[in-house]
Amino acid sequence: MKVFEDDPKNDAARTDAGCILYAMEDFEFAFLLYLMKLILGISYELSQALQRKDQDLLNAIGLVMVVKSRLQEVRDNGFDKLLQETNIFANKYDIDIPNMNDVYCPRGRSRRRLESFTFLYYFKVELFNTVIDTQVQELNDRFDNVNTKLLECLSCLDPRDSFANFNNEKLIEFARFYPSKFDELADIPFLSSNLDNFIIDVRADSDFVNLQTISDLALKMVEKKNDIVYPLVYLLIKLALVLPVATASVERVFSAMTFVKNKLLNRINDDWFNSCMLTFVERDIFDTIDDEDIMKYFQGMKNRRMIL
């Protein structure tokens, strides 16, 4: 940033660099950095668990509870320690530390037009508490009672350790989330016995011993024709496989929109925007396609005045 700030050839970059440096040398910036470090540290194990392909869903649910509990503990008792750490950092790098009892006033705003509150209130309530409450609310929204129940039910189909988490009642509860697939009178009564027979069968079959994921289980069932013998169980497994993918796909799309949508793309039509979204979300696939193939396909769509 110092290099850009001192560059006489690029006025725009100098201005931006100066503004960024000014913000970075502010006590509030340092406080937020330490707050971010604290929250990311608390949620690190959960984040890693949810990203693993072989994730243990029950452990992931347990980690959600741990993170929520830790965040609440930090909210109740962690502010003073965080403020002290920020003060030490500020003293080390000659950053001005505001008097927490002084009246807070944002830069560029008149004190007379603002509601009066202290720096202590601003840092503790407006920043610290608000950020933590937002994180807790985000966890509650993503892991509400229904989602948590679904994850608990999904874990019952985990084939590891000889189906250690298998639970007949929870799987029937899982089936009831899909009344269009499982009729209460025609299917649910038979599902229980179907599950009982299934678990005895697969635990006795050595071909099912080393399976690691639900997708492995589905493939092995098709290979052994068990999808025909236990059609209701296989339907449960298919739903279990579709649910995480569908949820993750929605999350990926909304996450991608923050990258793709900018001032330029705000002006393009929906079809073009959808195409940009598709290539961004599925970039791992598109990276494998040769540029020459893309140009040939584009050239062949209609006659053009020049060869690409």
TrEMBL record:
GO terms for molecular function: protein dimerization activity. The keyword Transmembrane helix applies. Keywords: Membrane, Transmembrane, Transmembrane helix. This is HAT C-terminal dimerisation domain-containing protein. It comes from Acacia crassicarpa (northern wattle). Residues 224-284 form the HAT C-terminal dimerisation domain. The keyword Transcription does not apply. The chain crosses the membrane at residues 29-47, 228-250. It comes from the Eukaryota.
